[in-house]
Amino acid sequence: MKERLRELGIKTTELSEYMRISRPSLYKYMELYEAGDRSAIPDNVLRTFKYVDRYKSLTKEQVVIFVICEFSDLRNSDKKEAVRRYILAHGPNDAKVALMYALATTSSLDSLAPYLADSAIILERPEIGPAELSRVAGLVNLKSNIIKNIPPTGKELEEAKKNLGDAYVERRFKFQKTGDKELQELGAVLCWNS
């Protein structure tokens, strides 16, 4: 386990803080795990070790998400359990797991989170009324365009540039005004990684 954590770039100090246990306790649990004596290891620590062992292509970020979910103060929460089960069932390379990590570790999507959560509930309903449709129309259209691989129009790119701020777009994407076709190609690959 110690070697595996080293491979992932996870320091025991960092992991013990996420787990809310002392470093000596973490070392003791790792030794027990490596010796095959798992009966004295707390369930959530054992689940973490098994997760790290099971998925060989894990990243440090994916382990951190798992540990945060496993050791959060919301131990008995239905939401926390649903997230934990999803991560375990779908593995480290799942797009939703990556999104959960982005939501947990960045602030760039914070203002969208309440809208996306409300929209998800609305879109699961068997019938959607006019007011609800008005609320989710932008998201539904965006999803449709992404699925159909329809790039943003030049007008949409200009609006995005304005909303993000000229300096941000120019710094992040080395934006150059070279014609509508190139604007659309840029829009097809535009992403907001932070």
Provide key terms for this protein:
disordered C terminus; 3 domains; about 190 residues; elongated; mainly alpha; single chain; 12 helices
If you had to describe this structure to a student in words, what would you say it looks like?
This protein is mostly helical and 194 residues long. It has 3 domains: 104 residues, no CATH class; 41 residues, no CATH class; 44 residues, no CATH class. Helix content is 70%, strand content 0%. The protein is built from 12 helices and no strands. Helix 2 crosses helix 3, helix 4 packs antiparallel against helix 5 and helix 8 crosses helix 9. The protein starts with a helix and ends in a 5-residue tail after the last helix. The C terminus is likely disordered.
Short description:
This protein is mostly helical.
